[in-house]
Every structure is written in structure tokens, then in C-alpha cells.
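Late entry, flavin mononucleotide complex.
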Amino acid sequence: MSKVLFINGSPNQYGCTYTGMKEVADTLSKEGIDSEFLWLGKKPVQDCIACNFCVKNGRCVFNDVVNETAARLPEFAGIVIGSPVYYGGYSGNISSFLDRFCFSSGGPAGVLKGKVAAAVVSCRRGGATAAFDALNNYLLMCNTIVAGSQYWNMVHGFTPDDVKQDIEGLQTMRTLGRNMAWMIKCIEAGKKAGVADPVQEDWTPTHFIR
Ligand SMILES: Cc1cc2nc3c(=O)[nH]c(=O)nc-3n(C[C@H](O)[C@H](O)[C@H](O)COP(=O)(O)O)c2cc1C
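Prediction complete; structure with ligand written out below:
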């Protein structure tokens, strides 16, 4: 059975971000797709130190949750990254995790390529679109197939009970879940029918100078 990995960057394991993501997971379950949650916890995740060890070695120099997750990625057809909104951005832990995870996971031809993906954010009141946009930058540069919904993927609340009253936010999560399920099934059907994965050219970095 296909499986989607949910990475929760909130320090609250079962808080508002989780409540929004769980609605996506429950919808996937109704569509026959399993989910697994990875909670980044309350302790700081190591930052990227820009040592470029990963460029040569294909894994991060720090052997922790980043390398463990990258090694397991072939198990998953999709990925959802979630964060509370902090000052109009995303949480420090999801930033540290994603900087290292995306940079070390093989670039455009890496382990994220072709995964059906989405970002989910939770805020009390404002800054959700800025955080959502910024999280999407990771997904859009890693050759994932980003799923949309009927609105931007955000829920509102200070407590999980608040989020449960965000009727439109939860509906947005369910629509996202159904769209992800449909995309995963289409990709699987395409593979069975012999549709080849898109070819990835070798990267030609120019850094805007010659
Ligand atoms: C340090 C910090 C900064 C925050 N900044 C914002 C913000 O900019 N906008 C907002 O609406 N809520 C802000 N909040 C509230 C949380 O984003 C909101 O309660 C969120 O739903 C909590 O999700 P969680 O339960 O998954 O941690 C902030 C909370 C903290 C702790």
C-alpha cells in the first residue's frame, strides 16, 4: 500500500499543525493510502553548517534524523511538511531539518524527485501565506510534484480545538488529501502502463557568472 510521510515541525506533537495534517492523513486513509508521522520534537535540530560534505558523499555530515529520513524516503509515495507560523515564517526546527534534508538528499535527481508533496501551516491569526510560500520553495526546488487544494494549505488556531472549528481550513486539508491520493494513484497507474519518469539533465550551475 502506498504511504505518505508527514513531517511535523511544531514543538507541540499533537497541536494545531498536527490537527491540520491529521485531517489530510485521515482523508488519505479513506482513499486507501497509509500515513506515517515524523515529529521533529522539542529539542533543536542541528543547523546546516554549509560544509558541502553532502555534495561529495550524498548524505549529511551529521548522522541524525535527516539521514535516517532520507534513507527511508523510497518507502513513501508522498511527503507533507508542516509547521506553525512563527513571526510570519516557519519554525526553527523545520528550517534546520529542511535545509539539511533537501540539500543533502541528492538535488534535482535526488530522493525527493517525483514524490507527491505539500506544505501545511497553522497560525493563530496572520503570516500563514508567507510561511506557506517559503515552505513550498523547498518542495518546488527538489523536483517534487506539488499538490494544490481549494485554498492555500493553512489552518487557524491557538489550540487544536480552535483548529477543529476552522471548518474551511479542515475542508482545505481534506481536498488536499484527495488531490494527493489522486495524484499518487495516477503516477502508479502511469508506471504500470509504461510511462517513464521524466529524465533529469545533469545540473549546470552558473551562479549568474561565468
Ligand atoms: C514564537 C511564536 C511565534 C508565533 N508567531 C505567530 C505569527 O506570526 N502569526 C500567528 O498567527 N501566530 C503566531 N504564533 C502562534 C502559532 O503559530 C499558532 O498558535 C499555531 O497554530 C501553533 O501550532 P502548533 O500547536 O502546531 O504549535 C506564534 C507562536 C509562537 C510560539
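The CA atoms of residues 107 and 142 lie 6 Å apart. Will revisit in the morning.
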